[in-house]
C-alpha cells in the first residue's frame, strides 16, 4: 500500500510541476485551476499520510541560498574504495558459493545522507573518503530526492548523485561555444552538486540513487537489517530511487553480467561498471579488509574492447579562444558496434605522453563504452611535431602550461578560426538571434570577404547578387536572412555583451553586469578590476578578462561601429522607480487589467519586485481576483497570514 502511494505522489509531483511550468513560463493552461487544486490537495494529503515528500514537490519551498564556501566534515566511518576486476570468472569465483547483489556502479558523485525525525538533516560528499564537503542545501534540490520520509528514527545512507546523458546533452545544446561545453556527465554533476549557489544545482536536474544503508536507529538503539535485498526494499519504501540491482549466485552471475552489458548500450544514467556485494551483510563485514579495500564488495569494470589500428594523421582543431586541440585520425575500426576513425588527444601533455608518430600502431577503445580514446601506442615513434604555426591562419603558436597541463594556442587575434567561432556565438539565439547563419555559411562569407567584423553583418545587402548565386541560397533564403538581420538591429544590452564573446561572460553574467551598471555601456567599458571583483558572482579571473577586453582599442572601435547599426533597448531603471525592491509576489487566476500574467510580472520586475510560483513566508502578497477561492495558494496564504489582494487592490496599493 505504501509503495502504491509513493508512486502516486511521484506521478502527482510530475503532473503538477508540468502544469506549473506551462502556466508560469509559457502562459498556457494544460489543466484547469480546479483540476490543479484538486491534484495539489490530493498530493498534500498523501504526503501527510505517508511522510514522504520529494524535493521537487510543489508543496515544498526549497529556498535558494548562496554560501561563501562549502564547510568540510569528517565521515564517522571512512568511505573506502573497492577492489576491482575486469574478469567475469574472477567475479564468479569471488562469491565462494554465497549469494550476492549485482548492481550498477554509477559514475557520478557519492553522497552520504542523514535523516533525523524523518527530515533530511545533512548531505556530505565522499571527498577523499575521510573528509567530505557539506552540500545539504544543494541536495534539497535533487530532482528525485525525498526531503521528508516516513521513517522517524535516525537514518544514514549512501548513494550516487548523477546527471543523465539526456539531461547532459540538453545542457550542452544550450551552450553555443564548443570550448565551453561540458566534457562528460560526471564532471558536470560534480560541479553542480558542489555549487555555492543551490539555484544553479536545481537547474541541472541532478538525480540521486541510493546504494547502501549505513545505519539506522531510534532512541539510541541501532536497528539492523542484515539482508542487502531487504535494505534496498526498505530504502525503496521510504521513497528513495535505488540503484538497479539483481540477486545472483555462482550459477546465474555470468548471465546477469551479460544482461547488464546489453542494457548499458541504451541506459541513460552514466555507469562505469558493476558492484558485487554479499547479500548477507554480517558475513561480508566479518571478512574484514585488505590493506586497501573492504572484502564485502568488489567492483567489476567493463573489459574495454580494444582494437589495433594505424595512426594516419594528427588533425589540429582551432577554436574561438585560440586553443588548438590535437585529434588523432586512424584507420577505421569497429568498436562496441560502431565504426570509429578519430579520437581527441585533448592536449600537448597527453600527445607527448603517448609518443605518437604517423604510421604508429595504436590500440583504441571506447571509454565507458561511449567515447573513443587511444589506449596505448605500441610503436612509440614520437615523431609528431607540434605545429609552430596555426593550421588555420598560419601565424605563430605558443605552448602554455596551466596546472601541469600543456596546451597549444594560436597567438593571432585575427585568426579565421577565432573569427568563425566568434561570429557563430554572436549570431546565436541568446545573442543577436540571427537565423540563417550557420557556421558553414559564416565561413563562406568570411572567405569571400563579406564580413570582417560584427558590424559587417548588417551590410550583407551589399552582396545580394553574390549571395543569391551561392549554393544553398536563393532569393527567398536571402530575403529571410536580411529580414532576420534587420530584426536583430533591435536588441538589448545583455544580448550584445554576451554576443561579444568575452571570456567567461555567459548569458547570466551579462545580465548581471548590465543591471549592476544600470544598462550604461560607457560605464561598463570603463569599469576596473576592483569594481568588477566586488560584484557577487564575478571573481578576479572574470574581472581581469573583462577589463582586458574592454581596454583593447580595436575592441572598443568594433563596439562603436556595431553600436551605429543597433537600437539598444535600455530599461528605464532609476532608484525612484524601484518601489517594489525586495518584495515578492505570487499571481494566480485570471486577470482583468492585463492581457496575461506575464504582463503583470514584467511590470512588477521593472519596479524591482520579484514574482515567484509559490506562496511562502517571504511573499509580500498573493494577487488573486477570487479572494474567496479555496485554492491551495489561497489556503497557503491564509496559513502564513500573507495578504490576498485583488488585481484592483494591488494596483491601488503598490502602483
Question: Would you spell out the secondary-structure blueprint of this structure?
Answer:
Layout (H helix, E strand, L loop, with lengths): L1 H24 L7 H18 L2 E2 L17 E3 L8 E3 L2 H7 L5 E7 L2 E8 L2 E7 L5 E3 L2 H4 L6 E3 L5 E9 L2 H9 L11 H9 L4 H6 L3 E12 L2 E3 L4 H10 L7 E4 L4 H11 L7 E8 L2 H6 L10 E4 L6 E12 L4 E13 L2 E7 L3 H7 L6 E7 L3 E7 L19 E6 L2 E6 L5 H11 L12 H9 L16 H6 L5 H14 L1 E3 H7 L7 H10 L4 H6 L2 H5 L6 H11 L2 H11 L3 E3 L14 E4 L9 H10 L3 E3 L8 E3 L8 H8 L4 E2 L1 H8 L1
Parallel strand pairs: 3-14, 22-23, 24-25, 24-26, 26-27
Antiparallel strand pairs: 1-8, 2-7, 4-12, 4-13, 5-6, 5-9, 9-10, 10-11, 13-14, 15-16, 15-18, 16-17, 16-21, 18-19, 20-21
Helix pairs in contact: 1-2, 12-13, 16-17
Report on the structure:
Strands 15, 16, 17, 18, 19, 20 and 21 form a 7-stranded antiparallel beta sheet that branches. Strands 3-14-13-4-12 form a 5-stranded mixed beta sheet. Helix 12 (416-426) crosses helix 13 and helix 16 (493-499) packs across helix 17 (507-516). It contains 24 helices and 27 strands. The two termini are 52 Å apart. It is flat. It has 6 domains: 1-50, Helix hairpin bin (Helix Hairpins, Orthogonal Bundle); 60-300, DNA ligase/mRNA capping enzyme (D-amino Acid Aminotransferase, Chain A, domain 1); 307-410, Nucleic acid-binding proteins (OB fold (Dihydrolipoamide Acetyltransferase, E2P), Beta Barrel); 416-488, DNA polymerase, domain 1 (Orthogonal Bundle); 493-569, 5' to 3' exonuclease, C-terminal subdomain (DNA polymerase, domain 1); 575-654, BRCT domain (Rossmann fold, 3-Layer(aba) Sandwich).
Amino acid at each position: 500500500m505504501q509503495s502504491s502511494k509513493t508512486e502516486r505522489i511521484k506521478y502527482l509531483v510530475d503532473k503538477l510541476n508540468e502544469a506549473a511550468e506551462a502556466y508560469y513560463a509559457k502562459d498556457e493552461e494544460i489543466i484547469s485551476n480546479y483540476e490543479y487544486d484538486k491534484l495539489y490537495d490530493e498530493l498534500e494529503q498523501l504526503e501527510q499520510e505517508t511522510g514522504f515528500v520529494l524535493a521537487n514537490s510543489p508543496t515544498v519551498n526549497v529556498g535558494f541560498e548562496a554560501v561563501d564556501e562549502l564547510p568540510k566534515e569528517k565521515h564517522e566511518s571512512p568511505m573506502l574504495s573497492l577492489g576491482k576486476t575486469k574478469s567475469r570468472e574472477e567475479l564468479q569465483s569471488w562469491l565462494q558459493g554465497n549469494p550476492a547483489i549485482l548492481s550498477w556502479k554509477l559514475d557520478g558523485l557519492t553522497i552520504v545522507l542523514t535523516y533525523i525525525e524523518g527530515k533530511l538533516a545533512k548531505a556530505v560528499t565522499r571527498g577523499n573518503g575521510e573528509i567530505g564537503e557539506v552540500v545539504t542545501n544543494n541536495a534539497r534540490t535533487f530532482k528525485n530526492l525525498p526531503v521528508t520520509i516516513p521513517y522517524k528514527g535516525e537514518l544514514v545512507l549512501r548513494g550516487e548523485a548523477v546527471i543523465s546523458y539526456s539531461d547532459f546533452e540538453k545542457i550542452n545544446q544550450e551552450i553555443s561555444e564548443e570550448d565551453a561545453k561540458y566534457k562528460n556527465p560526471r564532471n558536470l554533476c560534480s560541479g553542480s552538486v558542489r555549487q555555492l549557489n543551490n539555484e544553479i544545482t536545481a537547474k541541472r536536474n541532478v538525480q540521486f540513487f541510493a546504494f547502501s544503508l549505513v545505519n539506522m536507529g531510534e532512541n539510541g538503539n541501532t536497528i539492523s537489517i542484515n539482508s542487502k535485498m531487504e535494505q534496498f526494499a526498505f530504502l525503496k519504501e521510504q521513497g528513495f530511487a535505488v540503484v538497479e540491482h539483481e540477486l545472483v549466485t555462482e550459477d546465474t552471475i555470468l548471465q546477469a553480467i551479460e544482461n547488464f552489458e546489453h542494457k548499458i548500450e541504451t541506459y541513460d544514467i552514466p555507469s562505469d561498471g558493476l558492484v558485487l556485494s554479499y547479500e548477507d551483510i554480517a558475513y561480508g563485514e566479518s571478512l574484514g579488509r585488505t590493506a586497501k579495500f573492504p572484502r564485502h564488495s568488489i567492483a567489476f569494470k567493463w573489459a574495454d574492447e580494444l582494437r589495433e589500428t594505424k595512426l594516419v594523421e594528427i588533425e589540429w582543431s582551432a577554436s574561438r579562444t585560440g586553443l588548438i586541440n590535437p585529434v588523432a585520425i586512424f584507420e577505421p575500426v569497429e568498436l562496441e558496434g560502431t565504426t570509429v576513425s578519430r579520437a581527441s588527444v585533448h592536449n600537448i601533455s597527453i600527445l607527448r605522453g603517448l609518443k605518437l608518430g604517423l604510421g604508429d600502431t595504436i590500440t583504441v577503445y571506447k571509454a565507458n563504452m561511449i567515447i573513443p580514446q587511444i589506449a596505448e601506442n605500441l610503436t612509440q615513434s614520437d615523431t609528431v611535431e607540434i605545429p609552430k604555426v596555426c593550421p588555420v591562419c598560419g601565424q605563430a603558436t605558443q605552448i602554455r602550461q596551466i596546472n601541469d597541463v600543456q596546451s597549444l594556442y594560436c597567438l593571432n587575434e585575427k585568426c579565421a578560426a577565432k573569427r568563425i567561432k566568434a561570429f557563430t556565438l554572436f549570431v546565436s539565439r541568446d545573442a543577436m538571434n540571427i537565423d540563417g547563419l550557420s557556421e558553414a555559411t559564416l565561413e563562406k562569407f568570411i572567405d569571400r570577404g563579406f564580413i570582417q567584423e560584427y558590424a559587417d553583418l548588417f551590410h550583407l545587402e551589399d552582396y545580394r547578387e553574390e549571395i543569391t548565386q551561392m549554393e544553398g541560397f536563393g532569393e527567398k533564403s536571402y530575403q529571410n536572412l536580411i529580414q532576420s538581420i534587420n530584426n536583430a538591429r533591435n536588441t538589448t544590452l545583455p544580448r550584445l555583451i554576451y554576443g561579444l564573446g568575452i571570456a567567461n561572460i555567459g548569458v547570466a553574467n551579462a545580465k548581471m553586469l548590465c543591471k549592476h551598471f544600470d544598462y550604461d555601456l560607457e560605464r561598463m567599458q570603463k569599469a576596473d578590476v576592483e569594481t568588477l571583483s566586488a560584484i557577487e558572482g564575478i571573481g578576479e579571473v572574470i574581472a581581469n578578462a573583462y577589463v582586458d577586453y574592454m581596454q583593447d582599442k580595436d575592441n572598443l572601435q568594433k563596439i562603436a561601429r556595431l553600436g551605429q547599426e543597433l537600437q539598444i533597448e535600455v530599461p528605464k531603471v532609476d532608484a525612484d522607480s524601484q518601489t517594489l525592491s525586495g518584495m515578492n509576489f505570487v499571481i494566480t487566476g485570471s486577470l482583468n487589467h492585463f492581457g496575461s500574467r506575464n504582463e503583470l510580472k514584467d511590470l512588477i520586475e521593472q519596479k524591482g519586485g520579484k514574482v515567484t510560483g509559490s506562496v511562502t513566508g517571504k511573499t509580500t502578497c498573493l494577487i488573486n481576483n477570487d479572494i474567496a477561492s479555496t485554492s491551495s495558494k489561497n489556503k497557503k496564504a491564509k496559513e502564513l497570514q500573507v495578504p490576498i489582494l485583488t488585481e484592483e487592490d494591488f494596483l491601488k496599493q503598490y502602483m
